[in-house]
Amino acid sequence: MTQLWRRRTLAALAVAPLVALAACGGASTEPADGAAPGSADCAPTGGPVNLSFTSWVPGVEEAVTLWNQQNPDIQVKVNDVPAGNAGTYSNLFNQLKAGTAPDLSQVEYDSLSSFRLQNGLVDIAACEGVTDAQAKFVDWTWSQVQLGDDGVYAVPQDTGPMALYYRKDLFDAAGIAPPTTWDEYYQAAKTLAAADPAVKITHFPQQDANWFTGLLWQNQANLFDISGDQLSVTVDSPESRQVAEYWQKMIDEQLVATNLQGFSPDLYAAWNSGTVATWVSAAWGYSTIRDNAPDTSGKWAVAPMPQWTAGAKNAGNWGGSTTAVFAGTEHPAEAAKFALWLNTDPASLEILNKEGGLYPASSDAQSLPALSTGVEYYGGEQIFDVFKAASGEVDTDFTWGPTMTDTYRFLSDGFTAALNGQGTLTDALTAAQTQSVDSLKAQGITVGG
Amino acid sequence: MAVPVTAPQGSLTAAPAGSPPQRRAARRAGGRIWLVFVLPFAVPFVAFYLAPIGYAITQSLLRTERSGGIFGRPRTVFTGLDQYAAVFSDPAFLSGVGRMLLFGVVQVPIMLAIALALALVLDSAVARLKKVFRIVFFLPYAIPGVVAALMWAFLYSPQLSPIVNVLDAVGPRPDFLGSEAILWSIANVVTWTYTGYNMLIIFAALQAIPQELSEAARSDGAGGIRTAWSIKIPIVRPALVLTGVFSIIGTLQLFTEPVVLRLISTNITSGYTPNLLAFSIASGNNYPLAAATSVVLAMGTFVLSFGFFRLAQKRGWS
Q1: Which ipTM value was assigned to this complex?
Q2: Residue A439's pLDDT is what?
Q3: Whose CA is closest to A273, among A255, A260, A284, A258?
């Protein structure tokens, strides 16, 4: 049982009693009519300050304890919660409406826009040290927290640059090198299946729409475009179709496992038994394999993500979080100061990497000792070198929409049909395009071009 | 609930004992004393039942408008029945409802037939270890729904399940989580969970049948099966109708099992059941549409269960 499976299970447990709430609209709070404007100035309130901070990074308490020791006047209290999409975001949205939200919270990049839309974020650009900190972070993470304008709506925490985890022993036995292009990946799938029909090159996770958007990100298939007051939906684009058609071909030719949900015990059993040979995944995925496929220790290796054009260098990103200052805080300056420290201080970053397995958004921290040595499970290879390179190859322009929960849901629903042969992945894109436009309209947003 | 409400009241007003001042105090209090007994019910009923329903109905008549750009200031405006039109034109909602109707038409009769059969066997003269079996049959209901679903998820798992492995050895490999089978895999979990509960209601009704009736049937030469068919089942019809209504409500509100099973099955969409759909919509911060979906679901549940009840009355089943 990994953390993710456990978190999802816990989410299911947490969600079940909510049925009564959902049945009455899930609405126990007033709609927030008053928008929370970004603070133009950001002066420290001075005096002793208490801040609350919601996070689900394992071991974040240790970093906060360190902060509290060093900053007696700014004491931070951590609320340890399930992962964002496992119910915490819903809670936070409701807390924002009720005015009981924490001062700071962990928010993933793909959800920042949604929180801004629900008037949940404070623009901390004016707070001391924030704009200067830009240089400390990997380029694309900073554009992710700027949300298409001059503001700064969060401090980057960790990232999920993607690469290819593959079973080196199986590839060696079949006499194939790790694929460098998606075409080679397809050929590798066929070669592996020819050697043993039970072996699928990977699984297609129906619930992990954010895995698929990581693949789209690599191909510069921007899902949304925000320029000024204009928002356009480009979920269905030539670039996204290229990715969809490729994976549809893999599904049609039965080269991928269509019945394995991501992060499920069944997937782990398939990894252990060697019937699933690769996983295109993020830097944080190294521990997912290590902890759940102990039988295959030493058999996995990491190679750069396959490319659409030979010789290109593009990586996708899957996941990663920020620390956001929430609207309603009375101490934005102190909150921003803590958020910066948490994600730039070497001691803090070392704790977050060691305890939480975070792959940092801070450029310096990518050279942490733990990230520059060989990893035993992966045959002692320095796998993080691959992710460090990938981190520099992530497109800076990728933009999330402000209703990503819905867009992910529409994509996942479309995946179900595609995996069953009742539709295609291209259909999933077309449907998600139309439905996302409707979602945005429901939030009162005019969708252009 | 009737017993605790009336008993203390009676003892207060009717008790002849006690000194005159005490009695006067009791009589004075008697004027408002009903409040003490009504409020513990009325306050939660209004706060946690009527108010949320009223709030949901209000929400369902609104929509969000925004001024000042994408991240501008939102405000809610009255929109009439637009959200309801959106619910009825949502293919996910319609297919979810259709799926639940199919589920109910198949699962509810099967479950109630098993429950009735178990109750009759327990009630029959030949049964041994009645108390033990009564508890054993009821036990699944005592297990929280999420835990039951997790347990079944393991048994359905294509990689880990002992059942799948055994069946695989003797015939074609079963796929309990496939797009065709998953609905019936869920039905199986629901049946497993609720059969014992329904059995207990029917069994209680059977226990209330006077001994003389069974004796009279026996002396007329009726065997066990004949007695069950001609005497017992007609008498417990009201209990069957009641369990039928409960089951219809339960079917339309199906939620826990699909939520748990979608952790391992790739075939459960976000609108697999109407209740799950309402939850998914609310997760996307679209509360007006979620409220409208919930209200439609509640009305549908009411119409179906009440309709079934009326039908039963008309036919003289209850």
Answers
A1: 0.87
A2: 95
A3: A260
pLDDT tens digits for B268-286?
Answer: 999 999 999 999 999 999 9
Encode pLDDT of A204-238 as tens digits. Answer: 999 999 999 999 999 999 999 988 788 999 999 99
Which residue does chain B place closest to A120, by CA atoms? B71
| Residue of A276, A247, A249, A246 whose CA lies nearest to A261 | A276
Tell me: the pLDDT tens digits for B11-66?
444 444 445 555 555 555 567 888 899 999 999 999 999 999 999 999 999 999 99
Alpha helices in A259-400 (DSSP H): 265-273, 285-292, 332-344, 346-356, 383-391
Q: Which of residues 224-253 of B touch A (CB under 8 A)?
A: 253
* Chain A contact set for B269 (CB, 8 A): 412-413, 416
User: Smallest Cα–Cα separation from A23: which of B57, B291, B215?
Assistant: B291
Domains of chain A from N-terminus onward: 3-160+319-371 (3.40.190.10), 162-316+398-442 (3.40.190.10)
What's the gap in Å between the CA of A370 and the closest CA on chain B?
32
**CB of B204 closer than 8 Å to CB of B237:** no
Distances (CA, A) of B295 to A321, A346, B86: 36, 53, 13
* DSSP H stretches of helix in B73-181: 82-88, 91-123, 130-142, 145-156, 162-170
Pick the CATH number of B88-314 from 1.10.3720.10, 3.60.10.10, 2.40.110.10, 1.10.3880.10: 1.10.3720.10
Contact A416 B268 (CB under 8 A): yes
Selection from A280, A308, A289, A262 nearest residue A415 by Cα: A262
Q: Residue A312: is it exposed, middle or buried by C-beta count within 10 angstroms (0-12/13-18/19+)?
A: exposed
Compare CB distances from B266 to A24, A117, A206 and report the shortest one's residue. A206
pLDDT at A32 over 90: no
pTM attached to this predicted model = 0.89
Which residues in chain B have their CB less than 8 angstroms from residue A265's CB?
A: 154, 157, 159-160, 264
